[in-house]
Amino acid sequence: MVWSRRHLLDIESLSAEEILTVLDTARAFKAVGERAIKKVPALRGKTVVNLFIEPSTRTRISFELAAQRLTADVINFSAEASSLKKGETLKDTARNLQALNADIIVIRHSASGAPHFLARFLEASVINAGDGAHEHPTQALLDAFTIREKKGRIDGLNVTILGDILYSRVARSNIWAMTKLGARVTLCGPSTLVPRVFEQMGCRVTYDVNEAIADADIINLLRIQHERQRKTMFPSLGEYTSLFGLTQARLARTKPEALIMHPGPINRGVEIDSEIADSKRSLIIDQVTNGLAVRMAVLFLINGGQGPQGVAV
Amino acid sequence: MRRALTRIAHEIAERNETSAEVVLVGIQRGGVFLARRLAAMLASIWNHPVPVGELDVSMHRDDLDQQASNIKMLPTVIPFDITGKTVILVDDVLFSGRTTRAALDALNDFGRPQRVQLAVLVDRGHRELPIKADFVGKNFPTAPRERINVHFEEEGGGDEVALEKA
User: Fold this and answer.
1) Which residues of B touch A310 (CB under 8 A)?
2) CB–CB contact A306 B65 (8 Å)
3) What's the DSSP call for residue B72?
4) Cross-chain Cβ contact B60/A308 below 8 Å
5) In the predicted model, what is the mean pLDDT of residues A227-256?
6) B161 φ/ψ angles, rounded to the nearest 5 degrees
7) Rg, C-alpha atoms of chain A
8) Domain spans of chain A?
9) B39 membership: H or E segment, kind and range
10) Looking at residue B12, which CATH number applies to its domain?
11) Is the whole model's pTM more than 0.90, yes or no?
């Protein structure tokens, strides 16, 4: 297929074919990471700016290394050290970066829609690295890549997402990706964090964790996002663990081939038992490796659809 | 096609006396089919197997941002050390030479061959770089805007070299 997108803003607007193109491309880039020389010249001379207005370590490092392995020049820009603290607007910050001839801007922002806003006026390509509670497209792509790598397919699988769905951009992007690729998605967590309205996205919602994970092929655990919750959504972390935490006892009642995922950072002893996180059934570390390959693929594809002057050709 | 490949195989055997040093690397996708066929022919000439690798050069191209990308990236698999070897790059069509240049760059990431030779099924001219094939199946004069499509039995259907008028 012909990849013609200049931006990666969300999963919602991608077709299943486009998602699979990213996954296929990522497979080639994963092999690059396994060579002695882990670098290819695909983005030589291009400038990638990591504009991270909200704190992030793993996603930023992953994008930074991905860009470096494609031979791009990378600038990291964080909110604490920038003029945003001095009252500059996001639009002005982005325009300044563009004035430095940035080719690709990777943005993480606490406001939903911030990447779409930038894409409307910037010549540069925009990649969403997480916007508020809206989407985190590269996380969903790396999750899909990992599932396909381990299970051979996504179509027809039962995927259960357990935890804080309401405030989770990872959940939203994953729901879009998994349903587009033919998985059956079940959501589970405290009722305050898993409203029934998600059924409109084609998911099943249940508040019984044992029932939610009984038939699952993939159990994707999400962290409780203290920083995003404006009021207390459940009484205590201890109660969350006893009602929804993935314990050995609960895991024993799942299908033996069910695999565990988590976008990280994990809170051991809260949403996941420490031994489960380190077990053979956990894909948490594979997800990190695959994240790098998927981000290389996204940077590569986004750059390829772009003309020399930043015009789609 | 078979006749041309048999001739190339014999030319390769003639040119390279230390057959144990020779490895073939096919450029995805057509070059991989050709490299496998050449390896089988060389194996019967030399009476020992000849290693075959596969190379996708998309990541090393210099014109990535000048065309809408029609990308179907295929695996790069070179399951042997190329350092000190004679690497024979195999491609179906030699045109601008940019694919060959990208392949030479990509090979560098895997080791330092003693020498690299280039075998192509069709040389259609219009080089944009100082690159010349060592082994050519057929010289095929074309206009720059025409397209050459090579089909292989391995893809289903038969072997065929077709000229598509602009």
Assistant:
1) none
2) yes
3) -
4) no
5) 86
6) -115, 115
7) 19
8) 16-135+289-304, 137-283
9) helix B30-46
10) 3.40.50.2020
11) no
Instruction: State the smallest CA–CA distance between residue B10 and chain A in angstroms.
Output: 34
List pLDDT tens digits, range A113-146.
999 999 999 999 999 999 999 999 999 999 999 9
Residues of A with CB under 8 A from a CB of B: 1-4, 21, 24-25, 27-29, 31-32, 35-37, 39-42, 70, 300-301, 303-308, 312-313
Indicate whether A68 pLDDT > 90. yes
Do A16-135+289-304 and A137-283 have matching folds? yes
Tokens linked to A17:
């074919």
Domain carrying residue B101: 2-164
Cβ-Cβ contacts under 8 Å between A and B: the total is: 71
Contact B71 A3 (CB under 8 A): yes
**What tokens does A69 get?**
């392995």
What residue type is assigned to position B139 of the chain? N
Distance between CA atoms of residues B105 and A216, nearest Å: 46
Q: How many structural domains is chain B composed of? A: 1
- For the record, the structure tokens of A138 come out as 């590269």
Interface mutation target, options A30, A39, A40, A306, chain B, most CBs of B under 10 Å: A40
Read off the tokens for A149.
């790598």
Q: At what angle do helices A16-33 and A169-180 cross, to 10 degrees?
A: 110
CATH of domain A16-135+289-304: 3.40.50.1370
Taking CA–CA distances from A300, the nearest residue in chain B reads B59
Distance (Å, rounded) from C-alpha A284 to C-alpha A282?
6
Place of tokens 């931006």: A7
ipTM for the predicted complex: 0.71
pLDDT at position A238 is 87
Q: Please give the CATH topology (third level) of the domain spanning A137-283.
A: Rossmann fold (3.40.50)
How far away is chain B from the Cα of A5, in angstroms, using its nearest Cα?
A: 10
Per-residue H/E/C for chain A: CCECCCCECCCCCCCHHHHHHHHHHHHHHHHHHCCCCCCCCCCCCCEEEEEECCCCCHHHHHHHHHHHHCCCEEEEEEHHHCHHHHCCCHHHHHHHHHHCCCCEEEEEECCCCHHHHHHHHCCCEEEEEEECCCECHHHHHHHHHHHHHHHCCCCCCEEEEECCCCCCHHHHHHHHHHHHCCCEEEEECCCCCCCHHHHHHCCEEECCHHHHHHCCCEEEECCCCHHHCCCCCCCCHHHHHHHHCECHHHHCCCCCCCEEECCCCCCECCCECHHHHCCCCECHHHHHHHHHHHHHHHHHHHHHCECCCCCEC
